[in-house]
Amino acid sequence: MAASSLHDIFATEPGLSAKIDAMTELIPGVPASKQNLKTLLKHLMKRGHFDLGGNDDTSIEFHVANLKKKKDFMVKVLGKAEVVRRRDFEFNERPCVCGEVFPCTEEGLLEGLLYAKQNRKRYREEGPCPDCDRRSHESHPPKKKLKAKGMPKCEECMIKAIVA
């Protein structure tokens, strides 16, 4: 029996073509081409920092760090804002639930965008680690992490629970 051709696979799998296109597009109709990524990267490098602001539950920050010999592209996913009290005032602060550093290249930008999108989705669906919720004092900023994939807690809290 001969192997199926790509055309045969597309014919038998409805919607597969759309799924493949979605993986190669930044948004529908805008390909993740090297030129498009270069344009977006130039903008981020010019601004240095870009905060997507936040809806009710998450916010994403992009930052380009200019180091001596290279530039890094950093991505942070911030969780739901929490109240922090300091002396005579209080304010809202969003805990960083995950962050990663990528090369400041078109490929690094694409990896960073995918990282932000996937982890924002994980945070919305699974929530943060329940054990990272604790603060040593109400004036300390909140510390939270995403749960480890397929586990009820983050990696550190899982290890603590195992050896406790």
Helix count from the secondary structure assignment = 5
Average pLDDT metric: 80
> How many beta-strand runs?
8
Q: Uncertain regions: pLDDT < 50 for 5+ in a row?
A: 16-22
The general outline is globular
Helix fraction?
25-40%
Measured on Cα atoms, how large is the radius of gyration?
20 Å
* CA(first)-CA(last) distance: 56 Å
In the sheet with the most strands, the strands line up as: 3-4-5-8
The proportion of strand residues reads 25-35%
Q: What structural category arises from helix and sheet content? A: alpha+beta
Q: Summarize the main sheet.
A: 4 strands, antiparallel
**How many distinct domains?**
1
Summarize the structure.
With 164 residues, this protein is α+β, with helices and mostly antiparallel strands.
Can you put this structure into words, describing what you see?
The chain has helices at 6-12, 16-23, 34-47, 106-126, 155-163; strands spanning 25-27, 30-31, 49-54, 59-66, 71-78, 82-86, 89-93, 96-103. The protein has 164 residues and is of the alpha+beta class. The strands form 3 sheets. Strands 3-4-5-8 form a 4-stranded antiparallel beta sheet. Strands 1-2 form a two-stranded antiparallel sheet. A two-stranded antiparallel sheet has the order 6-7. It has one domain (32-163).
List keywords for this structure.
8 strands; single chain; 164 residues
